[in-house]
Write a structure and sequence with these properties.
The chain is mainly alpha-helical. The chain is globular and about 60 Å long. Helices cover about 45% and strands about 10% of the residues. It contains 5 helices and 7 strands; from the N terminus they run βαββββαβαααβ. It folds into 2 domains: about 60 residues, no CATH class; about 140 residues, no CATH class.
């Protein structure tokens, strides 16, 4: 676990087509951020007011072309690893409406009729669930093999040994399936309740956490 208990990361989303059209109609000048390195970005300001560009330094900067996988590797996976080590882990996603919080955390919005989704677009939450279950499965499998090896060495009766192996492995399979279902049910419940609405971009930032 890193010595830093809190990390602050920033992700920039690409400009949408509607924003590009609006800029053209209003004659606005595009002033994209300048990524200096993995931790620093320079943000342009209104030239009419003679404001100098603002340099922002965070623990990590994700440019607009960053992928969902990169966000998970830097944000989600360390949190799952920390949780498995016994630490409390929380991801707090903060930003203005339309900034891309839902996309980063969950992936693209889909309707009930859309059953398939490109896994490359999965957000941090579904990737964390998959990674967590993978880690738990690996740990359970290692434990089952160790118990099986001990039984083989200690028990001379083949029939008794066979029964014990079944008792050792069956509960772990049931437990893994139960955890998986609970995760998916919670995830689907949130996605069902969260409806996409057309809202005016407000000045007060909103947030989500997991």
């Amino acid at each position: 676990m890193s010595e830093e208990s809190i990390r602050v990361l920033g992700r920039f989303r690409p400009i949408s087509n509607s924003e590009k059209r609006h800029a053209e109609e209003e004659g606005l000048i595009d002033m994209p951020p300048v990524y200096l390195d993995l931790q620093s970005v320079r943000l342009a300001r209104d030239n009419e007011n003679s404001q100098k560009p603002y340099k922002c330094t965070l623990d990590r900067i994700f440019p607009s072309e960053s992928t969902q996988a990169e966000a998970f590797i830097q944000i989600g996976r360390p949190m799952v690893d920390a949780a498995l080590e016994g630490y409390n882990a929380t991801i707090f996603c903060y930003g203005q409406s339309g900034a891309g919080k839902s996309f980063t955390m969950f992936g693209p919005e889909t309707s009930d009729k859309e059953r398939t989704i490109d896994k490359e677009l999965n957000g941090i939450v579904p990737r964390c669930i998959e990674y967590l279950l993978q880690c738990l499965t690996e740990r359970t499998s290692m434990m089952s093999r160790a118990v099986s090896a001990t039984n083989d060495n200690d028990d001379d009766d083949d029939d008794d040994n066979e029964d014990e192996e079944e008792d050792d492995t069956t509960p772990s399979i049931i437990k893994e399936w139960k955890v998986y279902v609970e995760f998916i049910q919670i995830y689907k419940s949130y996605k069902k309740k969260k409806k996409k609405k057309k809202v005016f971009i407000n000045q007060t930032a909103s947030s989500m956490w997991t």
